[in-house]
Amino acid sequence: MTTPMFSAIMLAALLAACTATGEQRDARPSATIGDASTASASTGNATTLPVGAPTVEKLDLPDEHWRPLVSPEAYKVLFEDDTELCGYGPHNKEKRAGTYVCAACYLPLFESDAKFESGTGWPSFFRPIEGHLGTKEDLSFGMERIEYNCARCGGHQGHVFDDGPEPTGQRYCNNGVALKFIPEGEALPALRGGA
Ligand SMILES: [Zn+2]
Fold first, then answer.
1. How close is the Cα of 58 to the center of ligand 1, in Å?
2. Are 124 and 115 in contact (CB under 8 A)?
3. 58, 66, 173, 178: which sits with the fewest CB atoms below 10 Å from its CB?
4. CB within 8 A of 130, min separation 6: which ones?
5. Nearest Cα residue to 136 out of 162, 109, 158
6. Active-site residue, selected from the candidate residues 18, 105, 150, 173
7. Where in 43-107 does DSSP place strands (E)?
8. 145-190 confidence digits (pLDDT tens)
9. pLDDT tens across 4-48, in order?
10. Bridge-partner residues for 172, per DSSP?
């Protein structure tokens, strides 16, 4: 049996085991993200944090639909809001040109030209494909963070912080197992879960 407290302790242990730079940045979001959220709310402008509104129609499928289609590790991240161990997932060292699609429904979420080396142990991007992500506030583990998910299937992808590089200043810290990389020159897979 896993209690929330046990999970919190486990997460804290995992975070402590990760690189100091990445996790210290992950652990300090309350001031900066709070400010950004407040600014967005007061101006009605959501172009900074969180990202712009989704432009993709959301599928109406139960999470269980995806279980046979993805790895057990990916399912835990995508549909049970798990976080993979830093440095564990794929794509950290991926430098090739290409497109990162949602591991569940195959919606393209990031292009390789927006990927950067964050040193966190998770693949990181400074910009998503516009309209393909949804966001929500995540207050778990006593932290105030902005979670983002695939706008189409709703699968959890990662968290976004405002300490990324230019030109956006944003850092999309993504679980590697939640993404599938398609090298440039290969056809993108057909979307899954459609009618
Ligand atoms: Zn998806």
1. 9
2. yes
3. 58
4. 51, 52, 55
5. 158
6. 173
7. 98-102
8. 999 999 999 999 999 999 999 999 999 999 999 999 999 999 999 9
9. 555 555 454 444 444 433 433 443 333 333 333 333 333 333 334
10. 125, 160
Q: DSSP for 116-157?
A: E--SSSS-EES-PPTTSEEEEEE-GGG--EEEEEETTT--EE
Say how many Å lie between the CA of residue 152 and the centre of ligand 1. Answer: 5
Please say if 18 is a catalytic residue. Answer: no
Give the Cα separation of 52 and 74 in Å (integer): 25
- Cβ atoms 148, 18 nearer than 8 A: no
Kindly give the distance from the C-alpha atom of residue 91 to the centroid of ligand 1, in angstroms, as a whole number.
17
Residue with tokens 């432009």, as numbered in its chain: 55
Instruction: Report in angstroms the alpha-carbon separations of 53 from 16, 17, 30, 66, 186.
Output: 34, 35, 22, 24, 29
CATH topology for 4-183 is: 2.170.150
Q: For the whole model, what pTM was predicted?
A: 0.77
Strand segments, DSSP code E, in the chain are: 98-102, 108-111, 115-116, 124-125, 133-138, 145-150, 156-161, 171-174, 179-183
State the distance between the two ends of the chain, measured CA to CA, in whole angstroms.
38
